[in-house]
Design goal:
Layout lengths: L2 E8 L3 H12 L4 E5 L12 E2 L8 E2 H13 L4 E4 L2 E7 L2 E6 L3 E9 L3 E3 L15 E2 L2 H4 L7 E5 L3 H11 L4 E5 L9 H8 L4 E4 L2 E8 L4 E8 L5 E5 L2 E4 L3 E3 L29 E3 L11 H21 L3 H6 L1
Parallel strand pairs: 1-2, 1-8, 2-5, 8-19, 10-17, 11-12, 11-17, 12-13
Antiparallel strand pairs: 3-4, 6-7, 7-8, 9-18, 14-15, 15-16
Helix pairs in contact: 1-2, 1-6, 4-5
The site of flavin-adenine dinucleotide has 38 residues, from α1, β2, α4 and α6.
C-alpha cells in the first residue's frame, strides 16, 4: 500500500527544503523526495556570495544547514526518483522508480539540468575532459589550461573559480557581450588568468580517444575556423527544466517550465511548483527559498480547507 502524507515535496534543493521546513513546522506530515543528495545545484557551487546573512558560504555547507532546518520539524527525507504524479482529485499518487506515495498536496521542486551543446566529441569525452561542474572536476585540471563555453552567470562565475586552480581559462562566447551580472563580469575581466574569445562557437571537442586535447572554434562574424589546445571544456550554456515526468498534467509551457500563480499554485488544485523549475526570470537561491516558503504555507491552507467537514468540526 502506498505510504500516505499530507504533502509530498519532489526535489530537495533550496526550494524543496524550504517548502519542507514551512509545511512540517505547520504540523503537516511531509515526505521530501530526491533522487540524489539533498542540496540540488548548491552542491555544484563553490562560493555563494549573494545569500543574505552570509558574506560568503560554500554551497555544500549551505545545503547541509538548509537540510538540518528542513528535517528539524519532522519532514522525512526519502530517496526516490519520481516518474509520475496522478491527480485523483482530493489526493495525488506519486510513483517513484520503486515506490508509491499518496498525498493530499504535492510540491514540485525538481529544478533544472545543464543544457548540452550537442556537438561532436561532447558526449564522447564526457568525464574525460568535458565537464558541466567546475566544483566537481576543476581540481583535475590543476596547472593546465581549460576552456569555458557560455556567457551567463554560470560560465563567468565558474571561470573565476577555475582560474584559482588552473593556469589559464579561455571563455568562448557566441556574442561580444556577456549576459552575466556585472559584478561577475568585472571580477573576470580583472583576472589576468582569464581571457575571452568573442563572437565564436565551439563546434567540436577534439581528443586523442583517451582525453580532450582541444576544441574547434568558429568565428560567427568572419566564418573563420580555428583550433585551440585545451585539457578541459567546461560547458555552461543554460538550463533545461526537469519536468519530463509532469508534462501530462498540462502545467508546463512549450519549453517545459511550470507555470504557477503568485501563490505557487499550478492549474491543478493541490499541485504547487517552486524554484528553478518555474517559468520566471530570476533563478537564484534567494528566489527558490522565497517560493518554497510561500508554497509551504499555501499547502497548509490547502490541506486545512480540504479536510472532511467532520474532522474540521471535531477540532
Ligand atoms: P535545484 O537546486 O536544481 O534542486 C532540484 C532537486 O530536485 C535536485 O536535488 C534534484 O536531484 C531533484 N530532482 C530533480 N528531478 C527529480 C525527480 N524526478 N525525482 C526526485 N528528485 C528530483 N544561485 C545563487 O543565488 N547564488 C549563486 O552563487 C549561484 N551559483 C550557481 C552556480 C552554478 C554553477 C549554477 C548551475 C547555479 C547557481 N545558482 C546560484 C543558481 C541556484 O543554484 C539555483 O537557482 C537553485 O539551486 C535552484 O533551487 P531549486 O531547489 O529550485 O532546484
Ligand atoms: P543562462 O543565463 O541561460 O546563460 C546561458 C549562456 O550560454 C548565455 O550567455 C548564452 O548566450 C549561452 N548559450 C546558450 N546556448 C548556447 C549555445 N547553443 N552555444 C553557445 N552558447 C550558448 O544560463 P546560466 O548562466 O547557467 O544561468 C542559469 C540561471 O542560474 C540564471 O538564472 C542565473 O542567474 C543563475 N545563476 C546565478 C548565479 C549567481 O547568482 N551567482 C550563478 C550561476 C547561475 P547568449 O548570452 O547569447 O544568450
Amino acid at each position: 500500500m502506498a505510504k500516505s502524507y499530507d504533502v509530498v515535496i519532489i526535489g530537495a534543493g533550496p526550494a524543496g527544503m524550504t517548502a519542507a521546513l514551512y509545511a512540517s513546522r505547520a504540523n503537516l506530515s511531509v515526505a521530501l523526495l530526491d533522487r540524489g543528495i539533498y542540496g540540488g545545484q548548491m552542491n555544484n557551487t563553490a562560493e555563494i556570495e549573494n545569500y543574505p546573512g552570509f558574506k560568503s558560504i560554500m554551497g555544500p555547507d549551505l545545503a547541509q544547514d538548509m537540510y538540518d532546518g528542513a528535517i528539524n520539524f519532522g519532514a522525512e527525507y526519502l530517496y526516490g526518483s519520481v516518474e509520475s504524479i496522478k491527480d485523483l482529485g482530493d489526493h495525488k499518487l506519486i510513483k517513484t522508480d520503486d515506490d508509491e506515495f499518496e498525498a493530499k498536496a504535492v510540491v514540485i521542486a525538481t529544478g533544472s539540468e545543464y543544457k548540452k551543446l550537442g556537438i561532436a566529441g561532447e558526449k564522447e569525452y564526457g568525464g574525460r575532459g568535458v565537464s558541466y561542474c567546475a566544483v566537481c572536476d576543476g581540481a583535475f585540471f590543476k596547472g593546465k589550461e581549460v576552456v569555458v563555453v557560455g556567457g551567463g552567470d554560470s560560465a563567468v562565475e565558474e571561470a573565476s573559480y577555475l582560474a584559482s586552480i588552473v593556469d589559464k581559462v579561455t571563455v568562448i562566447h557566441r556574442r561580444d557581450q556577456l549576459r552575466a551580472q556585472k559584478v561577475l563580469q568585472d571580477r573576470a575581466f580583472a583576472n589576468d588568468k582569464i581571457n575571452f574569445i568573442w563572437n565564436s562557437n565551439v563546434t567540436e571537442v577534439l581528443g586523442d580517444e583517451k582525453k580532450v586535447t582541444g576544441v574547434k572554434v568558429l568565428n560567427n562574424k568572419t566564418n573563420e575556423t580555428s583550433e585551440l589546445s585545451t585539457s578541459g571544456v567546461f560547458i555552461y550554456v543554460g538550463l533545461l527544466p526537469m519536468t519530463e515526468s509532469f508534462r501530462n498534467l498540462g502545467i508546463c509551457d512549450d519549453e517545459g517550465w511550470i507555470i504557477t500563480d503568485d501563490k505557487m499554485a499550478t492549474s491543478v488544485p493541490g499541485i504547487y511548483a517552486v524554484g528553478d523549475v518555474r517559468k520566471k526570470d530570476l533563478r537564484q537561491i534567494t528566489t527558490a527559498v522565497g517560493e518554497g516558503g510561500i508554497a509551504g504555507q499555501q499547502v497548509f491552507n490547502y490541506v486545512e480547507s480540504h479536510k472532511p467537514s467532520e474532522a474540521k468540526a471535531n477540532k
